[in-house]
Automatic annotation (TrEMBL):
This is Putative transcriptional regulator. InterPro entries: AlpA. It comes from the Bacteria. It holds the Pfam family Phage_AlpA.
Length: 95
């Protein structure tokens, strides 16, 4: 199983949020930051988007959502460190 990265149109599609709303949520610490693929291209890890959607469905508070975002950002630093964890990455531009 590989990591899937979602480009902005796919993220707005999955979350139902507009581009400007997503970036406002990122500024408030309530949505994960994108990952740079190139100087002008970003994407979001699909599993992080799934976790944020699930948290919203559960009705977590903004404080809990902020903690989840912090945890997801922290976990990024350990992705791929396990020798057997060589994952394939695919980029999804829309769903």
């Amino acid at each position: 199983m590989g990591y899937r990265l979602l480009r902005l149109p796919a993220v707005t599609d999955r979350t139902g949020q507009s581009r400007s709303r997503l970036y406002a949520l990122i500024a408030k610490g309530l949505f994960v930051r994108p990952i740079a693929l190139s100087p002008r291209t970003v994407a979001w890890p699909e599993h992080e988007i799934d976790q944020l959607i699930a948290a919203r469905i559960r009705g977590v508070s903004q404080e809990e959502l902020s903690l989840l975002v912090d945890q997801l950002h922290t976990l990024r630093s350990s992705v791929g460190l396990n020798a057997k964890d060589h994952q394939e990455v695919s980029v999804i531009t829309s769903t």
